[in-house]
């Protein structure tokens, strides 16, 4: 079971993660939505497509754009559609 943890809080937990480019992507239904705020930020990956972001808020601590996902991935990345990956200090425990 893999877990995404920040500030001592489990943000996501699943045994059905997809690993892409050394990032753990968690199924959308495995995240604890109470800690996620949709961000207006977007980036583009040449092969995965346009990424959308979440800010993460735990108590009064805000980690901006610390999670991302692909709502409409390109061909070849469909297996991570809406799966959520993390960075910016979010620890992945395996």
Q: How would you describe what is shown here?
A:
The protein is built from no helices and nine strands. The chain is mostly beta strands. The chain has a single domain, classed as Domain of unknown function (DUF427) (Metal Binding Protein, Guanine Nucleotide Exchange Factor, Chain A, Beta Complex), CATH 2.170.150.40. A hairpin with a 2-residue loop joins strand 6 and strand 7. The chain is globular and about 35 Å long. The model has no long low-confidence stretch (mean pLDDT 98).
Layout of strands and helices, then pairs:
Layout: E1 2-6, E2 9-14, E3 18-20, E4 23-25, E5 36-45, E6 49-58, E7 61-69, E8 84-86, E9 91-93
Antiparallel strand pairs: 1-2, 1-9, 3-4, 5-6, 6-7, 7-8
Low-confidence segments: none
Q: How far apart are the first and last residues' alpha carbons, in Å?
A: 6 Å
Strand content: over 45%
According to DSSP, the number of beta strands is 9
Structural class label: mainly beta
The major sheet is characterized as: 4 strands, antiparallel
Helix count, per DSSP? 0
Précis, in short:
This protein is mainly β and 94 residues long. It has one domain (2-93): Metal Binding Protein, Guanine Nucleotide Exchange Factor, Chain A (Beta Complex).
List key phrases describing it.
single chain; 94 residues; mainly beta; Metal Binding Protein, Guanine Nucleotide Exchange Factor, Chain A; 4-stranded antiparallel β-sheet; 3-stranded antiparallel β-sheet; globular
